[in-house]
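Bench notes, afternoon.
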Amino acid sequence: MQMILSNILEKLNPTHQLKSKVVKKIVITCLIIIVQAISVKAQISHCQHLWLDPISQYAEKGKTVSISLYYDVTSNDNTLLGFGFQLFFNSKLISFQKANAFFNMFKAPVIQDDDEDFDDDPATDKYIMIAWFEWNGRWPGERLPCYMGNIDFLISSEAPTDMTTLNVNLTATHPGYNGCLHSSRIYIKPKK
């Protein structure tokens, strides 16, 4: 690679203004970085997006909050195999109540302990595992972007006035696709 770029540099620099070996090495290094960046960009696959709405909200202690999930994909292909993720939360501050309006689910949402700290956030201690799968490759089969459903959480009446994050971690995508995930924050405020 370096020889090829050196030859290209010689052709681009016929007057040999760049005679210094140090300057040539710097220029060649910069060209290598540019070529590698272009190569990496060309290899980036499509992305399956999952975002939580709202991104942030205020909620009173003892009240229920609802988080909506939305899905889209950069290829605009609504005939994929599926998608899976974990939604992490701090069970000392909020508790899972229910998930509703989900369609084409592989199985019902499952609550698990986050003993392995999969989201690298020591404040979260539980997660909800959610997955969709369609053997015939017709998932989600809806117009994109699409609404996936709601997840309701109850704010603990004993929770301090604090902020808690709902983190998202990818568990499965369609082959050749990346996951692009967006978290949400809940700001806990005192009861009125």
